[in-house]
Amino acid sequence: MFLPAYRAADPVRTYFVFKGAWSFLFALAFTLSMVYYVADVGLDPLQLVLVGTTLELACFLFEVPTGIVADLYSRRLSIIIGCALIGAGILLQGLVPAFLAILAAQVLWGIGYTFVSGADHAWITDEIGADRIGPVFVREQQIGLTATIAGTVTAGAFGLISLPLPMTLAGAGMMLLAIALFVVMPERHFERRTERQTFRRMGQTFKAGLQIARTRPVVRTLVLISLISGLSSEAFDRLWTVKILEFDFPELFGTSDPAFWFTVLALVGTLLSLAASLVANKVSPERVNALHPNGLLALLSLFQLTGVIAFALFGNLCLALVAMWVNRVAGSLSYPIESAWLNRNLESGSRATVISMVSQANAIGQSVGGPPLGALAGRTTLRTALVVSGLILTPIPLLYLRLRPARTSVVQEI
């Protein structure tokens, strides 16, 4: 049996601090990671895609098993193990600037990510109840974006000294976060099972989660959308940096260093996402927290695919950046809305498993879609690969619009 917290804190406050620290450390680690891969390690576009594919394969192989562990043994334990493994992976790629070391780091922190994926949302939903979770996820998004701003600025400052330095600090920080969660993270509303019960019920939990994913329209559709998003996102996430580096950066404050400019770009994108989240929740909270937000999600997904295609086509730096930020802001707004919608359609006993299945579908998409689009970029042009990446997203708005509120949801809304 895993040891309980020494000084159990309020779950909502713990969750907000955890997600804030998580966002800060991820921004610290990854704001300049792509620049580090290209400038210090010397990776070419194909290697960049292979780095992402390795990460997604690790997520694909371990997403469901770690989700089952979270559902049957301890979500708190799953989160703590995940943070420790993520920290070790980030630390490795910061300390060893070599292609093989970076591939090994992707496996390590990818496995760690699957321990946290699904378990964090399932944990807080159980601790406070599904009826209160929507506003918490929206607030989490705002806290996370604020922490990302701080992490981005910090990464830029340290990156001007040394590109791997922010990654090294972030890896150590993630390990310290795991220790802090071990001390204060409560788990009061989860029934742990014995080892015998755990192994006996693993298959049952997986089958129950699979049945939910197959039979409930909202869950089934979100799994399919996650798969399609993955098919598109791997190429865009890995190759947008290459396109931006093709432009000449203007000199500002006496420097045109890519580390400085990528920090500025990440900071502006995060500020825009935060502002959009605050405005949307203020102007139209009933849409953001709706029980069946398919229309809003369809609109946001349309903005996402438009942003990807426009980014690919624009030959002007400013226009390309605007298109990229449109895509990022729409994605940031849709994430907490979709997460709350998914959690409302799941039971506690299989919640983390089903959430992991959704993430696994995304990992499958990225693993399958990334290499062909990377090869396409090599055989044709980077622009062609990015346009195709955007076109892959076109079914998503239609999939959202096809979903209709169930009779029970309509009654609840009335």
TrEMBL record:
GO terms for molecular function: transmembrane transporter activity. The keyword Transmembrane applies. SUPFAM superfamilies: MFS general substrate transporter. The chain crosses the membrane at residues 21-39, 45-65, 77-96, 167-186, 221-240, 260-283, 295-326, 382-401. It comes from the Bacteria. InterPro entries: MFS, MFS_DHA3_Transporter, MFS_dom, MFS_trans_sf. Its main location: membrane. It is a multi-pass membrane protein. Pfam families: MFS_1 (PF07690). Keywords: Membrane, Transmembrane, Transmembrane helix. One of its GO terms (cellular component) is plasma membrane. Residues 1-407 form the Major facilitator superfamily (MFS) profile domain. It is found in: Cell membrane. The keyword Phosphoprotein does not apply. PANTHER family: PERMEASE, MAJOR FACILITATOR SUPERFAMILY-RELATED, TRANSPORT PROTEIN-RELATED. This is DHA3 family tetracycline resistance protein-like MFS transporter. It comes from Kribbella caucasensis.
